[in-house]
Amino acid sequence: MSQRPEGIDLAARSRARRRALQALYAWQLSGSHMNAVIDQFRHEQDMEVADLEYFEDLLHGVEKHIDELDDSLKPYVDREVGQIDPIERAALRLAAYELKYRPDVPYRVVINEAIEVTKRFGADHGHSYVNGVLDKLAAQLRAAEKKG
Questions:
Q1: Percent of all residues in the chain with a pLDDT value above 70, rounded to a whole number
Q2: I need a labelling partner for 60 at 20 to 30 A (CA). Which of 6, 31, 42, 98 fits?
């Protein structure tokens, strides 16, 4: 069992992921620039209880690597990434970013957090779909960690 990394507030990280999902959803639907979406969330959401640095890292990371993230998801989804429900698509992109670019976050945490935000904001069984896709993606991107 891994220990909590020094100086990291896990609850604040969890809130940052929830806010990031909402911001990514808004970004996907609006087509606005990511910085405008981040500014809007800074002013409208209760961001002082979230890890703002992590929130911004997630959103800028997804924006910067979106094509690569979507390509990594393609083998594990049953339709074009753009046709996936917007909440599920946002959760998958956020988790794919964390799996690929945040090795400091255990893959089980990434998957569990994606399932939880999808349960909270997505369709009734969306979390099952997200779980299935991410479990396969984690096997590819975090093979050594999954074995251990």
A1: 93
A2: 6
Residue 102: which region, alpha, beta or left (left: phi > 0; alpha: psi -120 to 50)? beta
- To which residue do tokens 């891994």 refer? 2
d(CA 85, CA 91): 10
Q: Does domain 10-147 have CATH number 1.50.10.20?
A: no
Q: Which two tokens stand for residue 105?
A: 């976050």
Q: Across the chain, which distance is largest between two alpha carbons, in Å? A: 43
Task: Mention every residue, 6+ apart, whose C-beta is less than 8 A from residue 69.
Answer: 62, 93, 96, 97, 100
Number of Cβ within a 10 Å radius of residue 46:
9
* Whether this model's pTM surpasses 0.85: yes
pLDDT tens for each residue of 80-135: 999 999 999 999 999 999 999 999 999 999 999 999 999 999 989 999 999 999 99
Angle at 111 between CA 106 and CA 113, to 5 degrees: 95
